[in-house]
Amino acid sequence: MIISELATITKVSAKTIRYYEQVGLLSAPLRADNGYRHYQLKDVETLVFIRRCRELNITIDDIKRLVDVQHSPKNSCAVVDNIIAEQLARIQQTQRELAKLEKSLTTLATSCKSHQVEDCSILHQLNAP
């Protein structure tokens, strides 16, 4: 199949597919005499896997490791477990930071009772040293 067909099937844009090839996440495809890329079923499977990993906000480097580890199916899956545990920890840290941000913004949003910029307590707090 050509890149446009692969893009449609996997819901990954052709531009992103070319990027994944460039960074080594996806193997270089066979090329026809006209230069068109030709993909196989394994490329569909790999791209769907990559897309799902990206939906979980897993980094490109970690996805490379997850793709590579699948080439040795008899090995321990400790690498996979560690990548997922580290990603979970990053997401949990982000959630804590977002909760603090939400609290700060809520405080700001409810602090101003003025209807004029000169008396706006939000602006006064944001300008405070």
**What oligomeric state best describes the polypeptide chains here?**
single chain
Q: How large is the count of helical segments?
A: 6
Distance between the termini: 61 Å
> Which shape, going by the Cα principal axes?
elongated
Total domain count: 2
What percent of residues are in strands?
Answer: under 5%
> How many distinct beta strands?
2
Helix content: 55-70%
State the CATH architecture of the largest domain: Orthogonal Bundle
Strand order of the largest sheet: 1-2
CATH-defined topology of the largest domain? Multidrug-efflux Transporter Regulator, Chain: A, Domain 2
Structural class: mainly alpha
Give a structural overview.
- The chain folds into two domains: 1-72, Multidrug-efflux Transporter Regulator, Chain: A, Domain 2; 76-129.
- A hairpin with a 5-residue loop joins β1 and β2.
- The protein is elongated.
- The chain has helices spanning 3-10, 14-22, 41-55, 60-69, 78-109, 121-127; strands spanning 30-31, 37-38.
- The mean pLDDT is 93.
- It is built from six helices and two strands; from the N terminus they run ααββαααα.
- A two-stranded antiparallel sheet has the order 1-2.
- The chain is mostly helical.
Write the layout of secondary structure elements.
Elements: H1 3-10, H2 14-22, E1 30-31, E2 37-38, H3 41-55, H4 60-69, H5 78-109, H6 121-127
Antiparallel strand pairs: 1-2
Tags for this entry?
6 helices, mainly alpha, 129 residues, 2 domains, 3% strand, Multidrug-efflux Transporter Regulator, Chain: A, Domain 2
Give a quick rundown of the structure.
The protein is mainly α and 129 residues long. The chain contains 6 helices and 2 strands; from the N terminus they run ααββαααα.
